[in-house]
């Protein structure tokens, strides 16, 4: 059984609590153990890097050192947390001076980091060849024919991790494979790697609203019934600000935005409520109706 | 009298010195091909494109660069960083400029982004975690009164759905975290 140190990140305690519960349910179904990182702290998002580089590094170094103490590698469900953790990890592994400086700081919390931890996005953990096979075997019909736009976002693939080919970050396919394994029908979504605007929703509203509009329109044009996301910031911008887009552009988008773990959970037979479905501002009824119809036809 | 032959740092070198832990190529490698500008999803909201900004840095035009909104408009999507044929990491350069602008206090007080980053940082130093409702509401006035009403309506809906906590969460060893940060830089510089 695979076991990871689970780093939820701040959003999964608040806006994205449904991502947290659905990740836990899916991990449980797949026989994967997610042990929450003890007393973890914020990854610093983009704000810490805006203020100071070492400040951003020290925050992530603490989380890495705690994982090392627990003897586990980290999985993170948020694209930004994931990117911050792995870039810091890579910097600490290649730069002994930086590691020494950070270890001096870590002493203040009785911690030390030797660089033994690996960092993955939770989607990586849910899409290894073995896990994909398990999903194929266990998946029911609830997502059959459901047209899903696989929205990767940015920092899940960029900046590129060492060892990856340009094609793997230009046109990755692992999200699509995962959705197919769960029985869904991923649509070709041209904007799947385009930015959701991230914190610009607060600092430059006009820019972010336009970016969200483009993503929604492209999903509609692709024939998607739902956008699946792998990041709490993407989900929040696409879903909670859909009304703002409709206001700004006199539009009537009603595109459900679900976490990929919620869709996976449905396919693995987890109850709707246990996946946190029902807490959206844009109704995901289209997804649920299809799931219900599939369940009915299956039982008849 | 002791004379020194050390020449002052160029502006480009000052910027690059703020990127100690990164591994991008030096800005002198820039060939002005504008790939960064072409792939940037927010370029139309910038007063200088990323290509122009790098050109201005290399030309030592500090005042023009620091007055630009470009680096506060960057969404950190790293599209440019992936595509630069010279291995420059423009998204990281944007971070270097935001740091420079906060240190030297050169940012325009009307901009939301610098104050947002400062506030975010202070929150983390107090609690160890970020807390959206704690700093976001101060900025919703940007949309005027009707924008504020819409934002509040959304907040209430999220509250009703249990997605908006009223009490910020806090890590257990916040004092140790603060001591850690103090070993890296003086806390009074950020608080």
Salient structural properties:
heterodimer; A: alpha/beta; Glutathione S-transferase Yfyf (Class Pi), Chain A, domain 2; 2 domains; four-stranded parallel sheet; B: 191 residues; mainly alpha; Fumarate Reductase Iron-sulfur Protein, Chain B, domain 2; 11 helices
C-alpha termini separation of chain A: 35 Å
The ordered H/E elements of chain A are EHEHHEHHEHHEHHEHHEHHEHH
CATH fold category name of the largest domain in chain A: Rossmann fold
Secondary structure: number of strands of chain A: 8
SSE arrangement of chain B, N to C: HHHHHHHHHHH
Number of alpha- plus pi-helical segments of chain A:
15
Specify the CATH architecture of the largest domain in chain B.
Orthogonal Bundle
- Tally of separate domains of chain A: 2
**What Rg of chain A is obtained from the alpha carbons, in whole angstroms?**
19 Å
Low-confidence stretches of chain A: none
Whole-number tally of structural domains of chain B: 2
- Average pLDDT of chain A, to the nearest integer? 94
**CA distance, first residue to last residue of chain B:** 41 Å
Characterize the biggest β-sheet of chain A.
Answer: 4 strands, parallel
Largest sheet of chain B: none
Structural category of chain B: mainly alpha
Helix content of chain B: 40-55%
For the secondary structure, the number of strands of chain B is 0
Quick structural gist:
The complex is a heterodimer of chains A (300) and B (191). With 300 residues, chain A is of the alpha/beta class. Chain A has helices at residues 17-29, 47-51, 53-70, 79-94, 96-106, 122-125, 129-138, 166-170, 174-181, 200-203, 205-221, 232-240, 242-249, 260-267, 285-299, and strands at residues 3-6, 33-36, 74-76, 119-121, 147-151, 185-186, 226-229, 257-259.
């Amino acid at each position: 059984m695979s076991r990871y140190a689970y780093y939820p990140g701040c959003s999964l305690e608040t806006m994205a609590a449904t991502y947290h519960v659905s990740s836990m349910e899916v991990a449980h179904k797949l026989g994967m153990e997610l042990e929450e990182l003890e007393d973890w702290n914020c990854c610093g998002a983009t704000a810490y890097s805006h203020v100071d580089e070492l400040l951003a590094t020290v925050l992530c170094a603490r989380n890495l050192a705690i994982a090392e103490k627990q003897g586990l590698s980290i999985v993170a469900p948020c694209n930004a947390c994931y990117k911050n953790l792995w870039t810091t990890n890579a910097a600490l592994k290649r730069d002994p001076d930086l590691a020494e400086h950070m270890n001096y700081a870590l002493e203040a919390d009785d911690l030390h980091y030797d660089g033994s931890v690996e960092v993955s996005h939770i989607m990586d953990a849910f899409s290894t060849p073995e896990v994909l096979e398990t999903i194929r075997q266990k998946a029911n019909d609830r997502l059959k024919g459901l047209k899903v736009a696989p929205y990767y976002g940015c920092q899940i693939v960029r900046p590129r991790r060492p060892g990856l080919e340009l094609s793997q970050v230009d046109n990755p396919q692992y999200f699509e494979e995962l959705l197919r394994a769960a029985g869904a029908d991923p649509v070709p979504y041209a904007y799947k790697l385009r930015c959701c605007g991230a914190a610009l929703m607060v600092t430059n509203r006009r820019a972010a609203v336009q970016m969200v509009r483009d993503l929604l329109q492209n999903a509609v044009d692709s024939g998607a019934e739902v956008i699946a996301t792998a990041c709490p910031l993407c989900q929040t911008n696409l879903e909670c600000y859909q009304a703002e887009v409709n206001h700004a552009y006199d539009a009537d988008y009603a595109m459900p935005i679900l976490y990929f773990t919620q869709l996976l959970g449905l396919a693995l037979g987890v109850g709707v409520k246990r996946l946190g479905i029902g807490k959206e501002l844009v109704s995901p009824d289209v997804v649920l109706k299809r799931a219900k119809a599939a369940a009915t036809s299956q039982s008849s | 009298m002791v004379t020194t032959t050390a020449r002052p740092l160029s502006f480009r070198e000052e910027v690059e010195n703020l990127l100690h832990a990164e591994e991008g190529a030096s800005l002198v490698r820039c060939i002005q091909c504008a790939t960064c500008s072409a792939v940037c999803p927010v370029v139309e909201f910038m007063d200088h494109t990323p290509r122009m900004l790098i050109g201005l840095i290399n030309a030592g035009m500090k005042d023009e660069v620091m007055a630009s909104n470009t680096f506060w408009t960057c969404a950190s999507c790293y599209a440019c960083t992936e595509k630069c044929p010279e291995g420059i990491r423009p998204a990281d350069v944007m971070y270097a400029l935001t740091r420079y602008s906060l240190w030297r206090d050169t940012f325009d007080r009307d901009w939301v982004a610098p104050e947002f980053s400062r506030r975010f940082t202070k929150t983390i130093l107090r609690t160890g975690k970020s807390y959206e409702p704690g700093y976001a509401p101060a900025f919703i006035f940007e949309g005027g009164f009707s924008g504020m009403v819409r934002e509040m309506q959304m907040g209430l809906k999220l509250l009703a759905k249990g997605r908006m906590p009223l009490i910020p969460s806090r890590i257990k060893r916040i004092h140790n975290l603060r001591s850690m940060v103090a070993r890296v830089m003086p806390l009074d510089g950020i608080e």
